[in-house]
Specification:
The structure holds 3 protein chains of 3 kinds. Chain A is mostly beta strands. Chain A has 1 helix and 9 strands, in the order βαββββββββ. Chain A has one domain. By secondary structure, chain B is an alpha/beta fold. In chain B, the strands form 2 sheets. Chain B has a 9-stranded mixed sheet, sandwiched between helices. The chains are: A mainly beta, B alpha/beta, C mainly beta. Bound molecules: zinc ion (2 copies).
Chain lengths: 147, 385, 160
């Protein structure tokens, strides 16, 4: 006699916290306190990483030189989210973009706002909009809006 | 026939309970740089990178995705491994296998845990079967309280004996610059520490540490070029037990600890381990594990472990030193812990352990790792081939 | 160590709460169904070595053979093999909540020789010892859901 499979709903609940480390702390404190967007420069490879990291993957140098990459950049690519999911940070439709800040060589994933999703385009120039109450994380930038 | 392999560089962090100054990747990076420095190599010499941690202690389930910059795996082959308490040893074995296969000459292995980022007991309970055991799981404390209780009942051991081994561990840790807990303990301190679950007291249990370890492993030909003091990895073995519904390590019958050590002794012609091995670095998350497991590793006769504690057999200056580093009970960055056994054993073989170098000459070292109740990794390191 | 206490290090709280649907499979599923519907404990028997598998499962790990449908009903009585009293606060990963303390847990060997870990009704550790005879106390039918906690606890029925 076949029976219905016995399936038990459950969940996994564990509290975590991530330490961002010395270098990223400095960068995010600058964002929180002074609305400065910081990357880190590898002098060997002559590349500026944003988000900052403390080792260059290409040459394994220790990276310590934080540099301001500015609050303006270019949309490298983007996608529009139309469906609703509990994990989504906001009501659809909304736009995720990869943004290369002017002073950086790498792309930062973030939201694109204050624009109709249909009007977003690759190569569009955008500018960071900061939160008023900043806490020291990358969401202290609310989103990027067209320049 | 596999290539012979050697450890040519070791590194570890200064283990602490909190490291808010580094993120996970930066923590690993410290150990990687230390191991490369020790081997006097640069990342260019590394052909593959293997890494691991117990991801549910950080809640970051693809840490290799974040870590390539910091561990040096950018555009290099490698993999991530998670096997519970044995993670650091399994990562090491993977590095040995990589080099022994002949496919890679020099392999970097790195393992870490950042326990200041999660809730270790909640994380550990979540490895239990969700339907059968998770609701009543009590992490490692419950498991080792059972080991202690069983050992006391079976052998007539007293709480003092656990305290003696704990003081021995602390003496080692106080001489080890990298160790986490350095407490200058007395027997009374241990006997008076807070009771967690009878007979388990706070000081019988390992701390929750933050730390990383790394190894550089090389094939025979490269090892001889790289260093004058290669530590040969003579053999390594992993043994699994049946999935546990209750903790099988307190039951009669051969455990993975017994099988793994018996196998590695047999394969290497060791008939009297405590005489033929010069130093052991074993995985004992609780001092009750050390007491109860001496016999499971066939070091001594059943029930003799506590007499060894009385006689100081396994002290740093004893006939058969065990865990001169201070062991897991002093330092437990879980994912890295089993690799630290290998790092410490390699330092003993090289004669480079400094203040905690054992007094007898070391030609052969034995290490173990243990995970869940279900599996054991053992390695045998030697000074000469 | 270069850590300066005056320096600010940022930390991001990341609470994790993930929903799952765990399939018990035909063997453990039958066990839970029987526990829920009839307050009975089942094991299945290895056709090769003859031992009881508890919890019931598909393969005998020692013989590497399929175990099949040779079901055995177990007694609800057993003996306390060992026990411990949990006094350390720990959070339950199934709920995220702290467990109420203290509580005793025991390994109980049922009359057929298989063991499980469960709660004891008696919470005074001075009254608990190895060898005590105990019996399972089940929740009433309407409260049973097909989980190990359908057994409320084990009650001491007789000293050794
Ligand atoms: Zn670089
Ligand atoms: Zn069988």
């Amino acid at each position: 006699m076949r029976q219905e499979p016995f399936v038990v709903p459950g969940k996994l609940v564990v509290p975590y916290r991530y330490f961002v480390g010395r270098l990223a702390s400095k960068a995010l404190i600058a964002l929180r306190d002074d609305k400065k967007v910081m990357g880190v420069r590898c002098p060997t490879c002559n590349l500026t990483y944003m988000p900052p990291r403390s080792t260059c993957g290409r040459c394994f140098s220790k990276l310590e030189e934080l540099v301001e990459v500015g609050d303006k950049g270019t949309v490298l690519t983007y996608t529009v989210v139309y469906h609703k999911e509990p994990v989504h940070p906001m009501e659809p439709p909304f736009v995720y973009g990869l943004i290369k800040l002017d002073g950086a060589d790498t792309a930062l994933p973030h939201f694109i706002g204050e624009v109709e999703p249909e009007k977003v385009s690759i190569g569009m120039k955008v500018q960071a909009v900061f939160k008023d109450k900043r806490e020291g994380n990358i969401l202290d930038i609310k989103y990027f809006k067209p320049q | 026939m596999a290539e012979r392999v050697a450890i040519v560089g070791v590194g570890q962090t200064y283990h602490r309970s909190r490291r808010p100054d580094v993120n996970q990747v930066e923590l690993m990076n410290e150990a990687v740089r230390a191991a490369l420095d020790d081997a006097q190599l640069t990342l260019r010499d590394i052909d593959a990178v293997v890494m691991g941690n117990m991801e549910l202690f950080e809640g970051n389930y693809l840490v290799d995705m974040w870590a390539s910059d910091g561990i040096g795996s950018y555009l290099k082959p490698g993999m991530k491994i998670t096997t519970g308490g044995t993670t650091g040893a399994t990562v090491s074995c993977a590095a040995f296998n990589h080099a022994a296969s002949g496919l890679f000459d020099v392999v970097l292995a790195v393992a870490f845990e950042k326990q200041d980022e999660g809730d270790t007991t909640a994380g550990l309970n979540s490895v239990s079967d969700p339907l059968w055991r998770r609701w009543i799981a009590t992490g490692a404390m419950g498991a080792f309280a059972r080991v202690g209780r069983d050992y006391i009942r079976r052998t007539g051991c007293k709480e003092e004996h656990a305290a003696m081994l704990r003081v021995k561990a602390d003496k080692g840790a106080c001489r080890n610059p990298y160790a986490h807990l350095k407490l200058n303990l007395t027997i009374e301190d241990v006997m008076n520490s807070r009771m967690l679950m009878w007979p388990m007291r706070l000081l019988h249990m390992c701390p929750t540490s933050v730390g990383a370890a790394a190894l550089v492993v090389a094939s025979e030909k490269r090892a001889k070029q790289i260093t004058k003091k290669p530590v040969w990895v003579k053999d390594w073995v992993t043994v699994h037990e049946e999935s546990a519904t209750t903790w099988s390590m307190v039951r009669p019958g051969e455990t993975s600890l017994e099988k793994a050590s018996r196998l590695i002794y047999q394969r290497n012609g060791i008939t009297k381990p405590a005489e033929e091995i010069d130093v052991a670095e074993i995985y004992e998350p609780s001092i009750w594990g050390e007491l109860a497991w001496y016999e499971q590793y066939h070091f001594c006769e059943p029930g003799e472990g506590w007499r060894w504690a009385e006689k100081g057999v396994t002290d740093m200056e004893g006939e058969f030193p065990v865990n001169p580093s201070g062991g897991v009970v002093a330092t437990n960055p879980i994912g890295a812990t089993a690799m630290i056994r290998i790092v410490e054993a390699a330092l003993q073989v090289r004669g480079d352990a400094g203040e905690h170098q054992v007094s007898r000459p070391v030609r052969t070292a034995f290490t173990t790792a243990w995970g869940g109740s279900n599996w054991t990794v053992a390695t045998l390191l030697t000074k000469s081939l | 160590m270069t850590e300066k206490p005056s320096e600010e290090f940022l930390v991001m709280p990341i609470p994790l709460e993930l929903p799952f649907q765990w399939a018990a499979g035909p063997y453990l599923g039958r066990f839970f169904r029987e526990l829920r519907d009839n307050a009975r404990l089942l094991a299945n028997k290895c056709p090769q070595c003859g031992r009881l598998l508890f919890p019931p499962r598909q393969v005998c790990a020692q013989c590497h053979v399929k175990v099949g449908e040779d079901w055995v009903e177990l007694s609800d009585k057993g003996v306390v093999e060992d026990f411990t009293v949990v006094v350390e606060p720990m959070s339950d990963p199934s709920t995220g909540e702290r467990r109420t303390l203290p509580y005793p847990t025991a390994t109980i060997r049922l009359e057929e020789g298989v063991s499980l870990i469960h709660y004891l009704e008696e919470t005074d550790s001075a009254k608990i010892r190895e060898g005590l005879k105990v019996q399972a106390v089940f929740k009433p039918r309407e409260k049973r859901k097909g989980e190990m906690r359908d057994i409320l606890y084990f009650r001491i029925v007789e000293g050794p």
